[in-house]
Amino acid sequence: MIFNKIELHNFRQFYGTQEIIFSIKDGKHVTVIHGENGSGKTALLNAFNWCLYGKTDLPKPNDLINEFAYSEMDKLGKVEMYIELEFKSRQTEYLLRRTLKFEEKDKWTFAKDTTGEVTLKYYSDDRYKEIGNPSIELNQILPENMRNYFFFDGERIDNLSKQEDSLEIKEAIKTIMDLEVLERSIEHTKSVKKQFMDEFKENTNDSTKLVVNQLENATSKLDNMKVELDQVKNNISIRKSQKQDIEIKLSKIDSIAVIQQERMELEKEKGKSEMELRDVSKKITQKISKEGYLAITRSLVHRVSERLEETNNTRSSRVEVPIRVLKTIIENDKCICGTSLSDGQDALAEIKHLLDHSSPDNEATSYAYLSGDNKLVDSYRNRFFEDLTDLRKREANLIEHIDDTMNRIEEKSAEISKRDFEDLNGLEKKRKTFELEIESYQKDLGLLENSIENYEREIKDLEKQLAEQKEIESKAVISKKRYETSAKILDVMEQIHIIKENEVKVELKERLKKVYSYFLRKEYSIDLSSDFTLIVKNKSQKKVAMSQGERQITSLSFIGAIVEMAREKYNKRSGNGIGEGGIYPLVMDSPFGALDSDHRKRVAQGVHKLSDQIIVILSTSQWKGQVEESLSNYVGSSYTLDYQAPMVSGDPSFEFTKIEVSSK
Amino acid sequence: MENVNTLEEVLMRLDNREKKMLKNILDLEKAALDRNSQKRVQIKKEIYDVIKMGVKSE
After folding, report:
1. At residue B2, does pLDDT exceed 50?
2. B 17-56 near A (Cβ less than 8 A)
3. Which of B6, B33, B51 sits opposite A180 (nearest CB)?
């Protein structure tokens, strides 16, 4: 998405119709808009937001129309305001206009609903054609939940590294990297698969119908549980992060810093032991399910051994002739007792009978093998018990250690609670609440994981049963094949999604680190966790509480890394429709406001590289000096918001802003 | 560490006919994203047809 033009009509300070044409020239892709305090910089940033999503972050959101224009209603009977945006997205030109209309009867009752009317058109066959679902289309072009990052308010930007934003980050990555196509395909193929299953059911017998119903039931329960599992996991991450934030705050209170540090160490140790315990418990379960049968082999081994002994004793009274001896006798036509076999038919028949009933290994060998195997079973059984005892011991030790650590944590907590410090009790209480919530979520998680495992097993069994159904009507055969094919394709789509999401995550991590180290002076490192949380750590790998400027740089680095990566993917796109990225703009209001001079210089030097279109709205004092030096070479167009003080030519008087092409 | 297959490994699970169906479905979805709301409404029917035509007889 690249903006060509914005037209403002009676919006906030902007009276009448005024426009800004954005620079899209290669190498001159920065548009600078200068404005002093109160001239409408933030209003301009919000004009993008309002036009695209019908929302603003302005202090009086219902008060969008220009006061001067509104006052003209007496004369005109009605008045309107609108914002029009001309932009290009994935080779298509769009024209978007959002309008609010006021009539005489509404006078002085400013619109409660400021969403307005929206029309979105795209250019095709030499004309603009209107789009039926503008909000859906716009959300696909630039997702609404990311508006604060693309329309970046330097003075209000919040901390992107908060856990609560991890879902937003995930969504943004998905949309911007163009995984939407794949996700929609998965969703739709799922319902098509169900349709084939229904067709199959219609044409089949009652017993098969029963299996299909059970299968459908189990699949739908499994799907619901997976959604629930994701929610519980997300809740755990949020609470953990909130708890961690409180712990960082506590470690900054001098009087308890040491105890808090010790408590954090103990928490870490507890976490490690809990992980180890989970591992040991898993090993115990696996051992029992794989080798548990050995536990009941004792009497069986004993009985086999007795029987073998008995057989061996009986066998010793018989003489067994080896096969090769019998074969030689037949070849020689003569028995070892001298009887000629050709003469005596009975003798030959007897030898042949012996040959037919001899095993390659004679009884003695078989006895040896069986006794050996029987003893081996016994030794496996002993080893199974030894291993299990060891694992159980480790499990008990770990449980004891965790209990002990928990007691020590409790002691530290009690010590902290005793200290007298403003806010301390509040922080401790919150910490405890989060801790209890985490415990409760973890219990839910365990139960859900178990149920999911059971349902997955049940589904596999039912699918096997279904595959074995023999009496299927010929009509049903084809539906079943179609169902199986859609299931196979669906499975591959889901795998591709995992691969693509992983690819994006790995690449984004690297890019983020690069941009961050370039922008930020301190030796902080940034990481993207497996659940898409941004984690900023200091040199000693501890999570840090950031200043406003550092938060701003973190947010800018994140969005910059995504925009840069999406652009690269778009330029290298293969045309297969999966994860092809796109071009995105960055619109920034006062991006350098909270930065010190060194950080200002670093950001100014690097920001033009992040996107194919940069629109910067800032005051002259922010522009002058390092920012101007670093950015002016890339500026393609420049405007000034010229603030006009209230007119005294009559009553009432109104202030307004004129947008002028600037020579700066 | 989660064991993730490569794209090639995953695609190998499909035969040529199934690969073609997968490509058709993705193309349809891509087209449906392109503002044509009519296609959007029909997308499930279109995917249904892709598989129906792809798996015709014995």
Report:
1. no
2. 18, 21-23, 25-27, 29-30, 32-35, 37, 40, 43-44, 47-48, 51-52, 54-56
3. B33
